[in-house]
C-alpha cells in the first residue's frame, strides 16, 4: 500500500462570535483558505482531483455544497469538483480521512481537505431548529424508531457533558482550572508566535480572537451554571466561532510528479462510535481502538489534540487513556481558541502538524467527540 502525505496545512485566524469574520460570507471564508493553500504549496490547482470540506448547518451562506462554492469563489479551475461532508464536530477531520482514503485507494493523487463555519451568520444547530416549525426541538429524536430504541429522554450535548462530569467526578473547580489552563496556553502560543506559520491573515485580522487575557478563576467561579444544579458554565465550554482551514493530501506519485516535499504522512485513520445519548464519550474507546489497530501505545504519541467541546470531555479522556495533560492541547483548545464546527478538524490538524515540527515530535494523535456519539481518530507522523 502507498502513502497519504500531508503537504501543507493552513487556516484563517479564528474569529469570536460577532467578531472580525462575522460578516464574511462562508464561501469567501472558505475560498480564502483555499487560495492560501494553493499559493503555499505551489501546486497547479488544475491538478487537484477533489475538494472535500466539512460544514454543518448547511443553510443560507453555507448551503449549496460549500466545498464547491468556496473553490469557485477562490477563482480556482471550474473542472475541479467539491463535496461537503457532515460528521458534526468532526466534519473536516472526516474530510481528511476521505482525502487520505482516496489517495490510499489509488483513485486520487491530490485532494484538498478542509472546512468552514461562520457561526455568527448561521447559528449553531440552525438545521435542527428548522424542525421547530413542526414542533420538534430535536427533530431526529421525534422519529418513532428512535423513540422506540432510546425513549423520550433529552438528547443534548449539554446534558451529555453534565453526565460525563458526574460519572468521571470532574468538579466545577477542576473544569475551571482546565479551562483557565487552555486560555493561558493559547495566550502563550500567540505571544510566542507559534500559530504564525499556520495562519493566513484575513486583511488586517491575523490573531485568534477567542483567548481572554482578562479571565481568571475568580471570574469563572462567578458565572451562572448552564443548568440549575449543574456544574457546567460557559467558561468550561467551547466558544462559538468563525473560521476556515484546509490541507493538501498527496500520493507518492503526486509527490514525485509535482516535486512536492511532504511534511507528514497519515499513519492511521479510523472512526468509532458510542452511546448517542451520552454523545461525547466516543473519543475514549475510539482512541483505544486506534492505538490497538496501529500497534501503538499511548506513550508512543508525542502530542495530542483532543477537541475541547467541554472540559469534562477531555478530563474524562485523560483519565481513561492515561495520556499526559502536558502533551495534550499544548497550545490551548476550543475553550480558548473557539470551535468553528466545520473548520475545527483541519484547524486542529494544522496546529498539530506545526507543533510537531516546532518541538521535533514524531507522532501526533487527534480525536474529536461528535454528534450522534461518534469520534474520528487520526495519527500523523512528522517527516
TrEMBL record:
Residues 5-252 form the Thiolase N-terminal domain. The keyword Chaperone does not apply. InterPro entries: Thiolase, Thiolase-like, Thiolase_C, Thiolase_CS, Thiolase_N. Transmembrane segments: none annotated. GO terms for molecular function: acyltransferase activity, transferring groups other than amino-acyl groups. It comes from the Bacteria. It holds the Pfam family Thiolase_C. The active site is at 89 (acyl-thioester intermediate), 339 (proton acceptor), 369 (proton acceptor). Residues 261-382 form the Thiolase C-terminal domain. Keywords: Acyltransferase, Transferase. PANTHER family: ACETYL-COA C-ACYLTRANSFERASE, BLR7806 PROTEIN. Belongs to the thiolase-like superfamily. Thiolase family. This is Acetyl-CoA C-acetyltransferase. It comes from Parafrankia irregularis.
Amino acid at each position: 500500500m502507498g502513502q497519504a502525505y500531508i503537504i501543507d496545512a493552513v487556516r484563517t485566524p479564528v474569529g469570536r462570535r460577532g467578531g472580525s469574520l462575522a460578516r464574511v460570507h462562508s464561501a469567501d471564508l472558505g475560498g480564502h483558505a483555499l487560495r492560501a493553500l494553493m499559493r503555499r504549496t505551489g501546486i497547479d490547482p488544475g491538478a487537484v482531483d477533489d475538494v472535500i470540506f466539512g460544514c454543518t448547518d448547511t443553510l443560507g451562506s453555507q448551503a449549496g455544497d460549500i466545498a464547491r462554492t468556496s473553490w469557485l469563489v477562490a477563482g480556482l479551475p471550474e473542472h475541479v469538483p467539491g463535496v461537503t461532508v457532515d460528521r458534526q464536530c468532526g466534519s473536516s477531520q472526516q474530510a481528511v480521512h476521505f482525502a487520505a482514503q482516496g489517495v490510499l485507494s489509488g483513485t486520487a493523487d491530490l485532494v484538498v481537505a478542509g472546512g468552514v463555519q461562520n457561526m455568527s451568520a448561521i447559528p449553531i444547530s440552525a438545521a435542527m431548529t428548522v424542525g421547530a416549525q413542526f414542533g420538534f426541538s430535536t427533530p431526529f429524536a421525534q422519529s418513532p424508531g428512535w423513540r422506540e430504541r432510546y425513549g423520550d429522554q433529552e438528547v443534548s450535548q449539554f446534558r451529555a457533558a453534565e453526565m460525563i462530569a458526574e460519572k468521571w467526578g470532574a468538579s466545577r473547580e477542576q473544569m475551571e482550572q482546565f479551562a483557565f489552563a487552555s486560555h493561558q496556553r493559547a495566550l502563550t502560543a500567540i505571544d510566542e508566535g507559534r500559530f504564525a506559520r499556520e495562519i493566513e491573515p484575513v486583511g488586517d485580522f491575523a490573531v485568534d480572537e477567542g483567548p481572554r487575557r482578562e479571565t481568571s478563576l475568580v471570574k469563572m467561579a462567578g458565572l451562572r451554571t448552564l443548568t440549575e444544579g449543574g456544574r457546567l458554565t460557559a467558561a468550561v465550554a467551547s466558544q462559538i466561532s468563525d473560521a476556515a482551514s484546509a490541507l493538501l493530501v498527496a500520493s507518492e506519485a503526486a509527490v514525485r510528479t509535482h516535486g512536492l516535499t511532504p511534511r507528514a504522512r497519515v499513519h492511521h485513520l479510523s472512526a468509532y462510535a458510542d452511546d448517542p445519548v451520552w454523545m461525547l464519550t466516543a473519543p475514549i474507546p475510539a482512541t483505544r481502538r486506534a492505538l490497538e489497530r496501529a500497534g501503538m501505545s499511548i506513550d508512543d504519541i508525542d502530542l495530542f489534540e483532543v477537541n475541547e467541546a467541554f472540559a469534562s470531555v477531555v478530563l474524562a479522556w485523560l483519565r481513561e487513556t492515561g495520556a499526559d495533560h502536558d502533551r495534550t492541547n499544548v497550545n490551548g483548545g476550543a475553550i480558548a481558541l473557539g470551535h468553528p464546527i466545520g473548520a475545527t478538524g483541519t484547524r486542529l490538524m494544522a496546529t498539530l502538524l506545526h507543533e510537531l515540527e516546532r518541538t521535533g515530535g514524531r507522532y501526533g494523535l487527534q480525536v474529536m467527540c461528535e454528534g450522534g456519539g461518534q469520534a474520528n481518530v487520526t495519527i500523523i507522523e512528522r517527516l
